[in-house]
Write a structure and sequence with these properties.
Radius of gyration: 15 Å
Strand content: 15-25%
Number of helices: 5
Helix content: 25-40%
């Protein structure tokens, strides 16, 4: 029995009203787990509900070094060890191997960060984190870092 998730599975989990804005262009099926997929879907649902989406982003779910085929060549990106994800213009590189080591609420927060960068054109990391904390009730941003909210 094959338990690997495919690009079609990941696309199917994205809420239909947001699907055209989150285009999966590459997936490493050996690294994606159902829990990571659920974090990814949840982050899209949270972001989509509070955003006026007007442009799509291309998403790579893999690990560094990233490599995508552009048709006229290949784009490679080697992230620094401390870097989990990165958005370059409308291309979002999500390192799902590194994300798998995070608690689920931090997975969601880090995915949301890249959507803020790519789809809202926010460069400032502090502002990005504040936006994420405003979007996602599962995290708080206090004194320059994420924490769990006290219930």
């Amino acid at each position: 029995m094959n338990n690997l998730l495919s690009i079609a599975d990941i696309k199917a989990g994205i809420p239909a009203e947001f699907r055209s804005f989150f285009q999966i262009v590459k997936l490493n099926p050996d690294l994606i787990t159902l829990q990571l997929a659920e974090s990814f879907w949840h982050s899209i649902a949270l972001f989509g509900r509070v955003s006026r989406l007007s442009k799509p982003c291309k998403i790579i779910l893999d690990t560094s070094p990233f490599c995508i085929d552009l048709g006229v060549g290949k784009l490679s990106f080697l992230a620094e060890e401390k870097t989990y994800h990165i958005a370059i213009e409308n291309i979002v590189f999500l390192d799902i191997k590194k994300a798998a080591m995070l608690p689920q609420n931090f997975q969601i927060a880090t995915f949301l960060e890249e959507f803020v960068h790519a789809l809202m054109d926010v460069e400032d990391e502090d502002l990005t984190s504040k936006i994420v904390a405003a979007i996602y009730p599962g995290i708080k941003y206090v004194d320059g870092k994420y924490t769990w909210p006290l219930l």
